[in-house]
From TrEMBL:
It is an enzyme of class 2 (transferase). Its main location: membrane. It is a multi-pass membrane protein. Gene3D superfamilies: 1.10.287.130, Histidine kinase-like ATPase, C-terminal domain. One of its GO terms (cellular component) is plasma membrane. This is histidine kinase. Residues 126-336 form the Histidine kinase domain. GO terms for biological process: phosphorelay signal transduction system. It holds the Pfam family HATPase_c. Keywords: ATP-binding, Cell membrane, Kinase, Membrane, Nucleotide-binding, Phosphoprotein, Transferase, Transmembrane, Transmembrane helix, Two-component regulatory system. Its EC number is 2.7.13.3.
Length: 344
């Protein structure tokens, strides 16, 4: 604080020192002025002491206002009305008036932005709900003609595109809800099979087309989570696993239980993730080398999965070996005795 104060008053200090040098030069060069060396050094010392005392007085006077401003900047929480009690000079008053004007403009713009975001969010949510109706109708029409698919093979392509659209709409809907997840979750005991099997059924068409072998073990284990959000997470993971699995590959689902947690393993035999991409797979919009090849990746599935698992107090981790496959591990921590007591 003193450094900044002295830096701002550097012109004052330089002016006083320059003026003192001029006086010293006159005393030394002007033969008519007789000054003893003691008086000469006394004059210089007295001037410097007065300068220091003046700076100390000004510094202490302005210190409270500057210190309060610095604290507000550090804490990122402020109330400019409180600053009136710290105003001591006209400069302080002008600065406070300027800050209050900037603060009013900032608050007005922030409020307008929040209103705009809320309206946009409501529109997107409504649109997603509306688009779900024709999508459901399309799915019913496709299912009604499923036994006649051999007559219209192009229906398979339409169903593929329908699944992609439905997945993207789901992503959009959950992205809109993600900001308010803390108000829209309900933790309950569910088996891992309730998280896995509905998604396997959803992607059954792709699994059949790729002739994937589904292997499951110990999925009756109970975990405490929000089934709606975690089904979405498993859906994102399973979508990637099926997309990158080879023909006649195998998808494995199994669990591991300890006194502290339950782990759900989702293992595929896909082409794997390059080591340089692994640290970035949870970044928003990151598709990596494999995703860029497929041209269908959005880089949002794992990003949302990470956000949701973190918010629910779970953990998601990915292990992968190039050309050998990928393992996604979802860890569900068991409620401890303190959690049980807090619910009483």
């Amino acid at each position: 604080m003193w450094k900044s104060f002295l830096r701002e008053r550097l012109s004052w200090i330089l002016f006083v020192l320059l003026w003192l040098s001029v006086i010293d030069a006159l005393l030394l060069l002007e033969y008519d002025i007789k000054v003893s060396s003691t008086s000469f050094w006394y004059l210089n010392l007295l001037t410097l002491c007065m300068l220091i005392l003046f700076l100390l007085w000004r510094g202490v006077k302005e210190r409270r206002f500057i210190k309060r401003l610095s604290l507000m900047l550090q804490n990122d929480a402020y109330d400019l009305q409180e600053m009136h009690s710290y105003v001591r000079t006209k400069a302080d008053e002008d600065m406070l008036s300027l800050l209050q004007r900037i603060d009013r403009v900032y608050r007005r713009q922030t409020h307008a932005l929040h209103v705009q975001q809320r309206e946009q969010q409501e529109y997107i949510t409504t649109w997603v709900h509306e688009i779900k109706t024709p999508l459901t109708a399309m799915k019913l029409l496709i299912n009604a003609r499923r036994t006649e698919l051999y007559k219209w093979p192009w229906l398979k392509d339409i169903e593929d595109e329908w699944m992609k659209i439905d997945g993207l709409v789901d992503q959009n809907l959950y992205a809109a809800r993600l900001r308010h997840l803390e108000k829209d979750y309900q933790v309950q005991a569910v088996s891992l099979s309730e998280l896995v099997f509905p998604n396997v059924a959803y992607f059954s068409k792709w699994c059949i087309e790729k002739r994937l072998h589904i292997d499951e073990k110990n999925l009756d284990t109970l975990v405490h989570t929000d089934p709606k959000w975690m089904q979405f997470v498993v859906k994102q993971v399973l979508s990637n696993a099926i997309k990158y699995s080879p023909l006649e590959g195998k998808l494995s689902f199994f669990s591991e239980e300890t006194p502290k947690y339950v782990k759900l393993f989702i293992v595929d035999q896909g082409e794997g993730i390059p080591p340089q991409d692994l640290p970035r797979i949870f970044e928003k919009g990151f598709t990596g080398n494999v995703g860029r090849k497929s041209k269908g990746a959005t880089g949002l599935g794992l990003y949302f999965s990470k956000k949701i698992t973190d918010a629910l107090g779970h953990r998601i981790e990915v292990h992968s070996l190039l050309h050998e496959g990928t393992t996604v591990i979802l860890t569900f921590y068991k409620p401890n005795s303190f959690d049980n007591l807090s619910k009483m």
